[in-house]
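R.M. (postdoc): so does anyone remember the format we settled on? I'll just put the structure tokens first.
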């Protein structure tokens, strides 16, 4: 950051002409007439300098001058680890060269690219919105988990550290470093050192690459996005126990809020907008695929405090020697004892893990941040547009809503394809809460490109990503029903698929779709669940006949993406159009139906909430027979029953989302089938009560209730009728119950 750049301080001066001459043979743009060297004012370890030419910027890191602690300031290790990480795509500045020739500037050094972005020196992130604060901390936790998930052998860093026993080595190392640089006796440091050595973790065998100084102010964030562009300062990196890194990152949450080494290092406990350490640990654990309960957390926190105290002591010692890297190094001497005492308080606390007490079906911090963004977007853009549409709507109008301009806004805000975990980073449980919010407006899912997630999931996960990229932001669709057969039994499908050389031929059959279709066809395999295949067919393919648009309850259904009757008359498509493989259509359908049904059901909960709001408003505004509508017991009971039904369905849906996250679609089949029945019934009942309270107006276009009913009534047919799901639930329940009986029965 420009305000942190100063002229090179006197104790760090070196021969700039020598440096320019050396670099001119090795880096482009150094031969420029302009070659300016300035020093970064922050950073407490190896001095860091900005090299600026007329065309490009570089960053130089070097050892401090003068007498140094043994084993410290190994810039060659920094260069090695950054080079290995950069080559794998991990976010670090690109290292460009290392120089061991001390005759150039007096010490070893290396040069790396300059990364333009945001560095937050005040880790409380003042001035940012709550959503952005949460998103930044979540991004930091995610990149730390990514670091700890890297394969050391693949990085070529198998010999970078000493392997198991990291915690014991850390206690020993920082004890020696503290005593070698101590300027006065601090009894708390000695007591903390003894406690740590006597309470080492029972399992210290896990070995990953660790950063050693992972803090928010060692990260460069994208100028406008909550995305880490580069992790800086790898001087303390090695291999060892990753939880030590996590504890060091979360350490500011555990020291007193009034304590501050610098203004940027104040305590985070209770800081407004900043996620809790439990939330961040949950993000980290989920990204690494490990349990959220982190045992012996007291030890790792106390070790972090001890290490920070040792670092502070070393910085102050360099200040006394006159070779400190930062201008504010004199402040660190007074921080050693408070840090040691904070560590001792942690050691005397009852043994804890970081799991804490979790709320039922709690969202991740990232999920909450995205939900907050969606809520704000809905409030600022979607709901006002919905009011305009309602005012302008007229009989026969197909799509009065400004969906496409809102899509452009949503995509620019990063609120796009939220239903895809691999794209959004959200769990199914996270997205369930978001889907409820979007369910409050008919066209909101389409605004966020989440209107028909099931089939987009198929294309995304099954490997047709190229098709997904080519698709315009319109509903993805499927041809999976036929007017002449009972489609609740998929084996009735008459549309057939036959291979002819390098093509597939689709024989006559019809269904509903729009834009680009995923056709389910019979491939005539003998095994019942291997009879179906799926192929992708562009609608401009020869033989595809758009017969007619269909209506729902006699009205245009364009607001839901539309349904068309389509004929396939000897349609030929390349063999590459097959999705996953022949005979795997049923498998694909089942894989996509779990998340798809879940999303429909949660949107139905949001829709029901809106219907209940309208019902209550109407009941409070209108009077009959001398009293307000809500004062009539029957209507009061409707309101109460609707609230109960919505809460029950929400919990059932969130439970299904949790099962889907934890166990996958196959294991969550019963929960998903139950919500498919419950959500359709509940939403139909709530909207029906709201219509009744509105009287004739509830059937008109003056209120959205009739349109709501048309939508939710289709849920009891779409993706399988209630009766099919009830039979499936019964079979699974019987199987579960009978498995509990003694074998002799």
């Amino acid at each position: 950051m420009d305000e942190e750049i100063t002229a090179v301080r006197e104790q760090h001066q070196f021969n700039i002409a020598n440096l320019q001459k050396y670099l001119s043979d090795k880096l482009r743009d150094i031969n420029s007439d302009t070659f300016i060297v300035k020093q970064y004012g922050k950073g407490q370890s190896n001095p860091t300098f900005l090299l600026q030419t007329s065309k490009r910027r570089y960053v130089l890191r070097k050892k401090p001058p003068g007498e140094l602690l043994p084993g410290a300031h190994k810039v060659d290790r920094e260069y090695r680890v950054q080079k290995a990480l950069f080559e794998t795509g991990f976010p670090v500045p690109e290292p460009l060269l290392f120089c061991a020739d001390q005759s150039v500037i007096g010490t070893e050094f290396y040069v790396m690219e300059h990364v333009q972005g945001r560095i937050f020196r005040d880790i409380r992130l003042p001035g940012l919105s709550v959503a952005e604060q949460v998103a930044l901390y979540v991004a930091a936790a995610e990149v730390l988990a990514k670091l700890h998930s890297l394969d050391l052998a693949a990085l070529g860093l198998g010999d970078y550290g000493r392997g198991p026993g990291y915690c014991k080595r850390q206690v020993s190392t920082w004890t020696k470093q503290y005593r070698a640089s101590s300027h006065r006796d601090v009894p708390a440091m000695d007591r903390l050192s003894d406690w740590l050595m006597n309470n080492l973790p029972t399992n210290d065998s896990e070995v990953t690459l660790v950063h050693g100084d992972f803090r928010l102010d060692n990260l460069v964030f994208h100028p406008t996005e909550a995305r880490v562009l580069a992790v800086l300062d790898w001087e303390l990196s090695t291999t060892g126990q990753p939880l030590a890194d996590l504890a060091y990152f979360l350490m500011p949450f555990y020291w007193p809020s009034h304590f501050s080494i610098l203004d940027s290092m104040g305590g985070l406990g209770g800081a407004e907008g900043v996620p809790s350490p439990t939330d961040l640990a949950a993000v980290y654990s989920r990204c690494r695929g490990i349990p959220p309960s982190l045992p012996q957390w007291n030890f790792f926190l106390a070790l972090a405090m001890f290490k920070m105290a040792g670092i502070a002591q070393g910085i102050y010692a360099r200040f006394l020697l006159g070779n400190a890297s930062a201008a504010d190094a004199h402040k660190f001497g007074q921080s050693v004892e408070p840090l040691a005492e904070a560590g001792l308080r942690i050691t005397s606390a009852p043994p804890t893990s970081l799991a804490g007490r979790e709320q039922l079906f709690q969202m991740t911090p990232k999920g909450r941040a995205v939900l907050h963004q969606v809520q704000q977007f809905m409030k600022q853009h979607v709901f006002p547009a919905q009011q305009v549409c309602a005012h302008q709507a007229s009989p026969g109008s197909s799509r009065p809503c400004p969906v496409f301009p809102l899509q452009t806004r949503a995509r620019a805000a990063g609120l796009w394809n939220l239903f895809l975990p691999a794209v959004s980073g959200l769990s199914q449980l996270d997205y369930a809460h978001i889907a409820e919010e979007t369910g409050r407006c008919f066209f909101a899912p389409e605004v966020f490109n989440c209107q028909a997630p099931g089939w987009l999931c198929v294309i995304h996960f099954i490997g047709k990503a190229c098709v997904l990229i080519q698709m315009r932001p319109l509903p993805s669709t499927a041809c999976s029903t036929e007017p002449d057969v009972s489609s609740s039994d998929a084996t009735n499908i008459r549309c057939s698929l036959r291979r002819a050389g390098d093509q597939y031929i689709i024989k006559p059959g019809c269904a509903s779709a729009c834009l680009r279709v995923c056709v389910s066809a019979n491939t005539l395999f003998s095994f019942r669940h291997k009879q179906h295949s799926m192929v992708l067919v562009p609608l401009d393919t020869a033989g595809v006949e758009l017969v007619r648009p269909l209506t729902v309850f006699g009205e245009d259904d364009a607001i839901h993406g539309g349904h068309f009757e389509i004929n396939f008359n000897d349609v030929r498509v390349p063999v590459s159009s097959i999705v996953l493989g022949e005979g795997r259509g049923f498998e694909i359908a089942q894989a996509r139906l779990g998340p798809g049904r879940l999303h429909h059901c949660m949107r139905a909960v949001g829709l029901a909430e809106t219907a209940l709001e309208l019902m209550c408003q109407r009941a409070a505004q209108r009077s009959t027979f001398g009293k307000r509508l809500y004062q009539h017991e029957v209507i009061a009971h409707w309101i109460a029953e609707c609230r109960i039904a919505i809460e029950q369905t929400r919990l059932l849906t969130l439970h299904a989302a949790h099962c889907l996250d934890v166990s996958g679609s196959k294991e969550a089949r019963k929960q998903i089938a139950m919500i498919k029945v419950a959500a359709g019934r509940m939403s139909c009942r709530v909207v029906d009560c709201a219509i009744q309270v509105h009287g004739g107006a509830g059937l008109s276009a003056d209120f959205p209730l009739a349109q709501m009913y048309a939508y939710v009534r289709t849920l009891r047919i779409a993706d399988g009728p209630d009766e099919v799901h009830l039979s499936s639930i019964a079979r699974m329940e019987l199987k579960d119950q009978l498995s509990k009986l003694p074998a002799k029965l």
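R.M.: ...and that's the designed sequence above, right after the tokens. Also worth knowing: Residues 130-348 form a domain with the Aminoglycoside 3'-phosphotransferase; Chain: A, domain 2 fold (CATH 3.90.1200.10). The chain has five domains: 2-113, 130-348, 359-445, 464-579, 591-738.
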